[in-house]
Amino acid sequence: MSIQKYNRDFFNLPSHIDGFFDNFFSPSTFRGLEKNFSDFLSPTSSISEQDKSYTIHMDLPGVKKDDINIEMKDGTLLISGERKEETKGNTVMNEVRYGKFQRSFKLPHLSDNSKVSAEFRDGQLNIVVEKAEKEQSKIIPVN
Fold first, then answer.
1. What does the alpha-carbon distance between residue 126 and residue 140 come to, in Å, rounded to a whole number?
2. 105 near 47, Cβ under 8 Å?
3. What's the rounded Cα separation, in Å, for the pair 120 and 57?
4. What are 77-94's pLDDT values in tens digits?
5. pLDDT at position 72
6. Enclosing H/E stretch for 124
7. Which of 27, 38, 91, 117 counts the highest number of beta carbons within 10 A?
8. How far apart are the C-alpha atoms of 106 and 102, rounded to whole Å?
9. Which three-class secondary structure state does DSSP give residue 27?
10. Which of 112, 105, 107, 106 lies closest to 134, judged by CA?
């Protein structure tokens, strides 16, 4: 059995752990990361189906109508935009996320890309996509 010299730092471990967390959660640690957190801005949404259409509802509080882009291509609805930060005075605390967002929804093949309408009011975006007429079967005679 060998004798080992004890390490004083081991007995100070609780103070080292406390110091680590004190430094980790200090405001200076997160300074500059706000931009990275905004990359995860993903508005909540829901899709419902009616007899002749699909309705996409998306919550976009604080987003202006001019900052929203909607595109329908190959049965995919693409919604993108940006929530811009409005600074008023010296911010003491901020839990609001800012930045660009993008959501895409693959709609069934029976959606009509030419019949899409959108309405934006009070931070709520509603998009209605009309269903295409169902393809009728056709009997083809063999000559």
1. 42
2. yes
3. 10
4. 899 999 888 777 887 887
5. 86
6. strand 124-131
7. 38
8. 14
9. helix
10. 112
| Spatial separation of the C-alpha atoms in residues 40 and 58, rounded to whole Å | 16
35 in Cβ contact with 82 (< 8 Å) = no
Q: Please give the backbone phi and psi of residue 50, each rounded to the nearest 5 degrees, phi first.
A: -110, 180
Is there a contact between 64 and 86 (Cβ–Cβ < 8 Å)?
no
Measured distance CA(77)–CA(103) in Å, rounded: 8
Q: Which own/partner contact pairs does 92-95 have at CB distance under 8 Å and 24+ positions apart?
A: 94/34
- Which tokens belong to 40? 């995860």
User: Which pLDDT tens digit goes with each residue over 122-136?
Assistant: 999 999 988 887 665
- DSSP 3-state assignment of 22? helix
Stretch (H or E) spanning 17: helix 13-24
Model-level pTM? Answer: 0.63
**Helix, strand, or coil (residue 64):** coil
How many of the other CB atoms lie within 10 Å of CB of 43? 17
